[in-house]
Amino acid sequence: MTTAVVLAPSIVLVDARPACRTHTACLIRNRWPDARVHEAADLAGALAEAAELAQDDHPAELFIVDGASAADTAAALHERHPAAQVAVVGTTAAPGCLRVEAPLSAEGAEQLLALVGWEA
To answer: Which of 52, 50, 61 is nearest to 87 (CA)?
Structure first.
């Protein structure tokens, strides 16, 4: 008999505000302690995180983007990583991306993680 191991999805939080990234990371980790959460301050950082995850064979499955240029950042991430889900917090979502109410709540985090099949 074999046992399947389900890895937590790889999530990249993108926000220029460190406190906001920490808040979102804590929401996710409090509900899912095994979460693989990575943080980036901007698009360049998010792309670097995604490249590193891909090298480790754990491609980013969900990008959560917040901040002043969230819609533009989300659009660029969606274009470069079409297999990943991209969610924008509290602003107008780019085409192909989801929009989530701000500030992100525990319930909002659960909805986002359900997108990548990781439900409580």
So the answer is: 61
Which one-letter DSSP state was computed for residue 51? Answer: H
Residue 41 has what DSSP assignment?
A: S
Q: How far apart are CA 65 and CA 33, in angstroms?
A: 21
Question: For residue 60, what are its two tokens?
Answer: 């980013």
Q: Are 62 and 25 in contact (CB under 8 A)?
A: no
What is the pTM assigned to this prediction? 0.89
Place of tokens 């698009």: 43
Domain count, the chain: 1
Q: What CATH number is given to the structural domain containing 37?
A: 3.40.50.2300
SS3 label, residue 89: strand
Kindly give the parts of the chain with pLDDT less than 70: 1-7, 91, 120
Helix (H, G, I), strand (E, B) or coil at 64: strand
